[in-house]
Structure formats: C-alpha cells, structure tokens
Amino acid sequence: MKKVFFAFLAIGAMTLASCSNEDMDVKPAGAEGTVTFTASLPASVQSRDYSDGQTAKNLTYAIYEAGQGDAEQTPLITGTATFNNLKATVTTTLATGKTYDIIFWAQADNAPYAFDTAKKTVTATYDGITANNESLDAFFWAEKDLTVTGPVSKTITLTRPFAQVNVGTNDFALAEKAGLKVTQSSLSFSTNVANAINLYSGAVSGEAEVTFGLANIPAGETFPVANYDYLAMAYVLVAAEKQTLDVTLATDGTPNKPVFASVPVQRNYRTNIYGALLTNPAVFNVEINPDYEKPDYKYEVVAKTAEDVVGGFEKGFDITVPENTEIDLSGVPSDKLVADDEMTITIAPDSKLILADDAFITANNGLTLKGGSSATSRSGETIVLANGILTNKADTNPGPGYYKNLIKVYGGELIIENMTLINDPDWHYHGDGVERPFNSAAIMYWNDAKITITNSRVISGEFALCGMGRGGVNTAVVNLKDSYFESTSSNIHNGKNWAYCMRIFGSSATLENCEVKGIQGGFSAEENDNVVIKGSKTKFYTVNTEGKQDAFYPVYVSSSACVTIEDGEFIGANNRSGGVLTEGTSCLVSGDNDNNYPSGNIIIKGGKFSGKAYNHVTKTIYQPESWVALDESEAPLLWTVKAE
User: Fold this and answer.
1) What residues are paired with 147 via a beta bridge?
2) Residue 144 burial by Cβ neighbours in a 10 Å radius (0-12, 13-18, 19+)
3) Which residue among 325, 362, 483, 535 is the one 20 to 30 A from 370 at the CA level?
4) Residue 571 in contact with residue 543, Cβ under 8 Å?
5) At 314, phi and psi to the nearest 5?
6) What is the reported pTM?
7) pLDDT tens profile 561-595
8) Strands (E), 496-633
9) Strand order across the 32-40 sheet
C-alpha cells in the first residue's frame, strides 16, 4: 500500500494551530517537543465523484508509548480534529527521547463505526445500512515508532480500510422501453466481508454476510468506466491482500438478482462491475480500478469466442478459456493480441487457443499462461493428458521466408504453468528480409525478460525457446522446471534453415528435471550465460530422422557461455567429433558456433553421458576430476564423472 511521507521539519515558533486538541486527557511528563501532524486524504480522491473523501470530516487520534504493537493498550493522549479541504492539523507536545505509536481514524458523522482506542480496533455495524451511501467512507493510518528528539512536523496520508464496489450499466433507456423502471438498488456480499479491523496491524477479523439495503440509485456521480452509469455502490471492509467474494445485485424494477461470482476485491482498491446489467445480466465485465492504488488487478474475461479473447487483450483483462472449449483465432492478426500490461491467460485442461499461422501473442510487460493443474510434462513418448493448449494453424503454408511464432516476449516475465505449446512442428523456415527478420520459435524473448516454465510441453518445427538480440545487452533470466521441449528441425528439410531445440541468451538460466529433444540439436547456450542443468530426471538427447544421420549435439556451448551440469542423462545420436572421440557419441560440445565466436565453457559435476565432453575447435576433451566408465547395461550411456 502506498505510504506518502514528507521530511521532518523543525517548526519553532511557526507551529500550526491545532484544529481541536482541547479534549486531550493526558500529557506526558518530562522535557517536551512540539509535534505537529497534518493528516491528509489521498490526492486521488479530490475529484468530484464517489470517493471524494468529503464526508469523512471527523478525525480521531490516539497516541501510545511504542512497543506494544497491536496489543490492547491505554493511550497516553486521545483527541479529535476536523478536516477542511481534505486536511486536518493536530499539534501536541510529547516527551523528547521517547518513541510513540499514533493511530488516526476519520469518518463521517453518525457512521456505523466504533473506534476502541484501547483495543486499537474499529468495529462496523452493518444492521440497517443501505447501498449508495457515501457517508460510509472512512480512512485510517498508523504512524509507528516515532521518536521525538525536538520539534517535529509531518504530513501523513490516510488510506481506506475498504474496497469500493461499483456496479454500472449502459441500458437504462433500453430497460425503460421494455417496461423496467429502476430507481433503487442494493448489494449483498458473501461471507468474506470483515466487521472489524486492528488499525495498528491492519488485520481484519470477523466474517459476515452483508446486505446493503435498497436506496436511490446514485445521481450526479460519474461511473469510473466511460459510457456506463451508476447502478449501485458499497464500501466493504476487507484485507490488504486480494480476495474474492460473490456479489448479488437487486433493484426495485426487476425480480432478477444477478450474482457476480468470485469478484476480486482488495483494500483501498476500487472494483468495477459493468455491462448491460438490466437487460442482459449474464454478460458483464469486472475490473479493479487503479485510481486508489496500484498495481491494477484485472478480473478475467470468460472467453468462448475469438471476439471474447480480442476484447480481453483490448481492455487488458485476464482471460479464462473454460473446459472443453476450442477457440479459433485464425482470423485475428498479431496486433490484436498484444499484452501491454501484466495479464493472465488461463486455458482449462484439454481446451485450446489456435492462432493464425502468421500470428503471435506479444508480451510487453508480463504474461502468465496457466493450464490444467494436474498436468504431467514427461515425456516425448508418454504425452501429457491434462494441459491447456496454445497452438497455431499447422495445415497452412504461408510460403518460404515466413516464420511462425506463438509468443514474443519484449519485457516483464513470461510464466507458463501446466501448458502445451505447439508451434507447427512441420514448419522449418526462418523469416527473411526487413519485414520478416525473425526465426520460427514457439517462444522468443529479448533483453531483460524473465522466462519461467514449469510442468509444461513446448514443441516446435524450429526453436521451442529462442533468445534474441545476439551481441546486445541481454540480461534475461530463464528458469525451466519439470518440462518437455522438442524441436523437429533438421538441415535436411530445406537445406537453408535449421535450429536447435532451444537457444538461451541472458545472464543466467536454470534447467531442472527437464527433457530436451532435438534433431539438429538440443540445447545451445550463448552470450555469457551462467547455466545450471540439474535434477535426476533431466534428459537431453538428439535423434536422427528415420533413414538419415542428421542429428547433432544435445548440448552445445559457445560465445563465452558457461554451463554447469550437476545431474541427468545426455545422449547424442552420432559421433561428429572428427576423431576426437574414440568411443561413444558427440554429447557435450563447446566451440565457436561456426562463426569465430569465443568458445564456451562446460563444468561437469555429475550426470551420465553417451560420450566425453570436448571442444570441436581445439579438438580437446574436457577433463573433470575423472571420467568413470559405466556398466555396459547402461548403454548408450558410457560415462559418468567422479564427484569432486
């Protein structure tokens, strides 16, 4: 939660006058320092609409000797003041050399809240309250561990203990034509609504089913979403962390009582529910508005059509694809699938999003893809049963020179959990020219992006995962765990374009218990990577196309990258060492990437290998502490290493 403080100022004879401190009942003994607080309501409330803060005029404060935290404690001083233009000033004297806690509470006259200064709590009484009541707005702040060393002047900003829930509609006129005259509304909430808050700790307590009674629909107020009018509003006491509750709307003009399930709410945030709620209450949008606080939490759009998905991207909402749903986005261009802010796409198990063959999702500031919670990523032969699926058209051919992608990550974190991504396994071309300069890859990333993939499968005709920006400043971080990656690329396909299963750029990468399968190659580390490969279930391997010997290296390290192998199995299909290896196959190889780049480094601490590691430029075998031959029964795995 935002905390706005200004510097301590010595005020001397310029001390501001107290608005009201004549009711202070205790004064501390000893040397005294003049302490002035200016209590301010947030700048964001100063526009004329709901939440302008004008009703919460009465400030109560209590001053305690510090050290008791949120425990019950008799205050040293209590007092009141009155807000004027959203500010109230309190001046008192406190003993120098001592440390204090000070709690502030602001509310309207006759608001249903009781501030117990000894318990440091405020309790709400919900009996008889009505919806659309701005006088229920209130604010608080706990100034902790203030040590007085002399005159002090400080401005603090109070915040709300509530979430404001707004309901808006755009069909009043249409409803009237249908004979529905709506003049009053009410809101009811599920049992997640608290009825007490400790103002020191901010912890809420109690659970209540709260119904705000019928009241006149707000008039003269501006709904936070353009082109919608207020239908109902209520303040609910909730925790600082985001939670969900069910909201029921009732009006005097219709017997329908739509229920909005799992609506997100959070303290000091504003949740907006809106749609054509009088005539079509089953279709609605929910968002948490950032006018109170940031970040901007968004409620998901339940998507059953391509239009629903496009609408989610346009509004920056999270998107949920429900069970047994396949959405064909083949008519949607890439510029309609851009996530400029953080968003989450949840695809239920066995449901699918299908992109056009030349379209992709762009993530500029964070994207999460979530699939089935019971997914299993392993292995290439035993395929996952319960993932959500993101794929593209695999039966279309845009022609040589075009590339196919699923996701491009330019900024923020890409998180993929329990997903299957399939980037046309039969497409083996890079792009060409100025307009199409990219590789085909299921996932491409640049710069300082962070890639986290867990319990998922990624399959592609070229790269499954591809770092971009060779030669630039690349500080990306890659973390892959319990996942399967496969590329079907080979130089036999077109003699022009081919790819490893993954190419990793960035500052660091960790691959734990992952399976990486390739033909042209498995894993390539470049550009100063610090890569760790670990986990007993790790398996990196290459396979030949049937009837060919076209497979290269399971692990290749170049351009000063450093790869540390702690565990796993590594199996190459062919011996491509040019005589460096007298037995086994090319498995772990470093070199210059055929472009005179600096060679990479391989540190081997564990694992099993189909051949010893070597540098294909210097024609030398890497020597860990010692290579240890494996039993013949483990073939094609021939070697392990002695632990350091």
Assistant:
1) 99
2) middle
3) 535
4) no
5) -60, -40
6) 0.60
7) 999 999 999 999 999 999 999 999 999 999 998 88
8) 502-504, 508-512, 515-518, 523-525, 530-534, 539-542, 555-557, 562-565, 569-571, 588-590, 601-604, 608-609, 614-615, 620-621, 627-629
9) 87-95, 32-40, 152-157
* Neighbouring C-alpha atoms within 13 Å toward the C-beta of 498: 19
Query: Tens digits of per-residue pLDDT, 75-107?
Result: 999 999 988 877 888 989 999 999 999 999 999
What separation in angstroms does the CA of 198 have from each of 7, 25, 62?
27, 23, 13
Task: Give the Cα separation of 44 and 160 in Å (integer).
Answer: 12
Residues 6+ apart with CB under 8 A from 236: 162, 163, 165, 189, 193, 210, 245, 265
DSSP 6: -
| Closest CA relative to residue 478, chosen from 487, 461, 465 | 465
Quick check: 286 and 299 in contact, CB under 8 A?
Answer: yes
Give 410's contacts (C-beta < 8 A, 6+ positions apart): 362, 363, 364, 445, 446, 447, 449
DSSP per residue over 135-189, as a string? Answer: GG-EEEEEEEEEE-SS-EEEEEE-B-SEEEEEEEES-HHHHHHTT----EEEEEE
Structure-token pair, residue 521: 């190659």
Residue 41 DSSP label: -
- First and final C-alpha spacing in the chain: 49
What one-letter code names the amino acid at 267? R
Rounded CA-CA distance 615/304 in Å is 53
pLDDT grade, residue 275 (50/70/90)? confident
Which DSSP string corresponds to 382-425? S--SS-EEEEE-SS----TT---EEEEE-SSEEEEESEEEEE-T
Tokens representing residue 496 in the block: 């022009």
Tokens of 30: 């000893």
Determine contact, residues 333/342, Cβ cutoff 8 Å: no
Spatial distance between the Cα atoms of 491 and 548, rounded to a whole number of angstroms: 11
Helix (H) and strand (E) counts for the chain?
Answer: 2, 53
Cβ atoms 510, 534 nearer than 8 A: yes
Structure tokens at 189: 């909430």
